[in-house]
Design goal:
The chain has 425 residues and is of the alpha/beta class. It folds into 3 domains: 96 residues, Orthogonal Bundle (Fumarate Reductase Iron-sulfur Protein, Chain B, domain 2), CATH 1.10.1060.10; 160 residues, FAD/NAD(P)-binding domain; 124 residues, 3-Layer(bba) Sandwich (FAD/NAD(P)-binding domain), CATH 3.50.50. It contains 16 helices and 16 strands. The strands form 4 sheets. The protein has a 5-stranded parallel beta sheet, with helices on both faces. It has a 5-stranded parallel beta sheet with strand order 5-13-6-7-8. Strands 9, 10, 11 and 12 form a 4-stranded antiparallel beta sheet that branches. α5 runs antiparallel to α7. The radius of gyration is 22 Å and the shape is globular.
Length: 425
């Protein structure tokens, strides 16, 4: 596995020392009806786990976190805490909010460094559930079902579990080892994880419905859409770019002048990789205004401090290439999207171009015969799809802007409760 400690992509925040964690935990007011807990999508009892840190009960702290969020180590690192728990901290108005994310990481790092045997499988019920996809939603659902005693098999088309936590989140925020440790924790609950197995190709839908009492779909989204511009064959896919930086960095080439198309969090991750790994100039291209960026404000501030430049209201129209390699990206000025300003074309020098412009809707819905809404799998309040016994959660059911790792974890947890409830109903 790739080591990133000297690559420029090691974790941005160092772990808290014991003393730092102790001091920070004692700053917490331990609010009754704490707004931080309400702001957490998985509703971790934040004052409780911080109180346990302050009394040096790290096992109890980690247990509190895991009771609400089985992927607490990942979420401690990748959650937009500024927008969620820390953003709701009552100390944030006039002082500095509690470093909730880093304290959660402190407790979870303790748990994993000591074997993390804090979660147990329940008494077997005889029920079998298939989970399609080993990303955060699928792992969360599988783990919660195992806690309730159900037998779970996860089918994952890739070689490793973890979904975007393994393949698509920059090491700066989450190292691969953290994601894989959580996969192993779920496996340790008795969950069978079959990798390299694609539903529809390696196992049929009819087989799933015959052999399992319920199915949970957690496949995320599909491939990055095409830009439909001349020379697009010279453009790299952003998610593959991030994956290579995590799992195969020695073969990752970084250009001198890198252009990233898009302005979401994935695009910012791509720009950060390019800048940290040696690009002289990195420019992000976005066809809308600065105010319409989909990236979080704190991520935008971060990448600007990294020295990344921006071109807003610019629409890519052609890749300029010479001798089979890109030399620039031709763009046109946007008056008001999608209207372009005639004669406004200009070329940004680029020997490497990466696109991070979102992803296609999941194709598995058609395979399973599921109703969709705006291309996403349509579910009811119990996460059940239009086909009885098939449930879904994670990015494959969420509109743009509402999707995140922590929401996927919560989807999986609530879907597991609904599936178990259906067995008893």
């Amino acid at each position: 596995m790739l080591s990133t400690e000297t690559s420029g992509l090691s974790e941005h925040w160092p772990p808290l020392t014991n003393n730092e964690a102790f001091v920070e935990a004692h700053r917490c007011l331990f609010c009754y009806d704490a707004p931080c807990t309400q702001a957490c999508p998985t509703h971790i009892d934040i004052p409780r786990f911080i109180k346990k840190i302050s009394t040096d009960n790290l096992k109890g702290s980690a247990t509190t976190i895991l009771s609400s969020n089985l992927l607490g180590a990942t979420c401690a690192r990748v959650c937009p805490v500024q927008e969620l728990c820390e953003g709701a901290c009552v100390l944030g108005a006039e002082h500095r909010p509690i470093m909730i994310g880093r304290l959660q990481r402190f407790a979870m790092d303790y748990a994993y460094s000591n074997g993390n045997h804090l979660v147990r499988a329940g008494t077997p019920t005889g029920k079998r559930i298939a989970v399609i996809g080993a990303g955060p939603a699928g792992l969360s659902c599988a783990g919660e079902l195992a806690r309730q005693g159900h037998a779970v098999t996860i089918f994952e088309r890739r070689a490793l579990g973890g979904g975007l936590s393994t393949y698509g989140i920059i090491v700066l925020r989450e190292p691969v080892d953290i994601a894989l440790a959580e996969v192993e924790m779920i496996r340790g609950l008795g969950v069978e994880i079959k990798t390299g197995v694609e539903v529809g190709a390696d196992i049929g839908v009819a087989d799933l419905q015959r052999d399992f009492d319920a199915v949970f779909v957690s496949v995320g989204l599909g491939a990055t859409p095409a830009l439909q511009i001349p020379g697009e064959e010279h453009i790299l896919d952003g998610l593959e770019f991030i994956q290579q930086s995590k799992l195969d960095q020695p073969s990752l080439r970084i250009g001198r002048n890198v252009v990233v198309i898009g302005a979401g969090n994935t695009a910012i991750d791509c720009a950060t990789i390019a800048k940290r790994l040696g690009a002289d100039r990195v420019t992000m291209i976005y066809r809308r205004t600065e105010q319409e960026m989909t990236a979080y404000d704190h991520e935008y501030d971060f990448v600007k401090r990294e020295g990344v430049a921006f071109e807003f209201l610019a629409q890519p129209v052609r890749v300029v290439a010479q001798n089979g390699a890109p030399t620039g990206l031709e763009c046109a000025r946007v008056v008001r999207f999608p209207e372009l300003l005639p004669g406004s074309e200009f070329v940004i020098p680029a020997d490497q171009i990466v696109k991070a412009i979102g992803q296609h809707r999941p194709s598995i819905a058609a395979l399973l015969g599921l109703h969709t809404k705006a291309g996403l799998i349509d579910v009811n309040t119990n996460y059940e799809t239009s086909v009885p016994g098939i449930y879904a959660g994670g990015d494959c059911i969420r509109v743009k802007g509402a999707a995140s790792t922590v929401m996927a974890v919560q989807d999986g947890k609530l879907a597991a409760r609904a599936i178990s409830g259906a067995f008893h109903g």
